[in-house]
Amino acid sequence: MNQPAEPAKKTRSSWASRNFWWFVALTYLITWAIWVPLEILAVQRGYILPNPQTLIELFKTGFQDSLHLALSILMVFIAGPLLAAIIVIAFQSGKPGLADLWRRSVLWRIGSRWYLVILAILLVIYLPVAIVGLVRGPLPTAGQLFAPLVWVVPWFLMTLIGSGLEEPGWRGYALPTLQKSISAKKASLLIGVVWGIWHWPVFIPLFTSILNSEGGSLPAALITSLIQLVLYVFGAILGEVFIYTWLYNRTGSVWICILFHTLHNMLATYIGIILPGAVAILPMLGGVMQWIVAIVLLQKFWVEPASRS
Fold this sequence. Notes:
It is built from 14 helices and no strands. With about 300 residues, the protein is mainly alpha-helical. The protein is globular and about 50 Å long.
């Protein structure tokens, strides 16, 4: 009597998978159609475009001219994951689906403890980085500590739009869609790989630099860029993605993921600005600490969506 459930389960799995890959294709298309030309133009002009890997240097150098500023603003407003989620949901379930995404994206009344939780996670990730930076020196002056905070409001808004608003796509649509047919762990791994590859245009300046260097070649540029991308995916993104999955499945709130993403990127940039000695080890040590947090969550606190609390 239980046999008819198998085809239904298979159909549901196929449906969820198909919609997820439509989302991925649209996310890549929308983002890369703007991001890749911007990166190429920036390389030609010698501009640094804002992203989590370059913000520290950009804060120090500033914008070269009005075109640099315009391209940077356009870079911030590339909302590929968000737009892809809206498009797929609109075709899939129309206004009710969009209303549900909006509800989860502004669901901020989840209990004060969850705001303390994300602050605690960020402290665990970045306190060792800050300690190493302090030990390596130089120590920041009071002026250096507070100078970036003058821009904290526009900086927060820029990071919220440029990074935080990825979350309605990755955690608001992709994660719950995949979890209809596979476990939260498998869904996290798949999203982590897709999310990491989505970032590949940030390595265009590296690729171009190697290609144009003395003795540089196309194979060397390709291999080096690929290695950097693989290290980025496995060293940072895959550890981080489990934290986002855990936050979403425990709260049902996309907003907490938006806020965590925003504060995560801001804190990394702030530490890099005030502690130059931490810049070299920030990606590696930060990635290791993210994996430690992820492993603790996986071993001690993990939940599947059916047991959301």
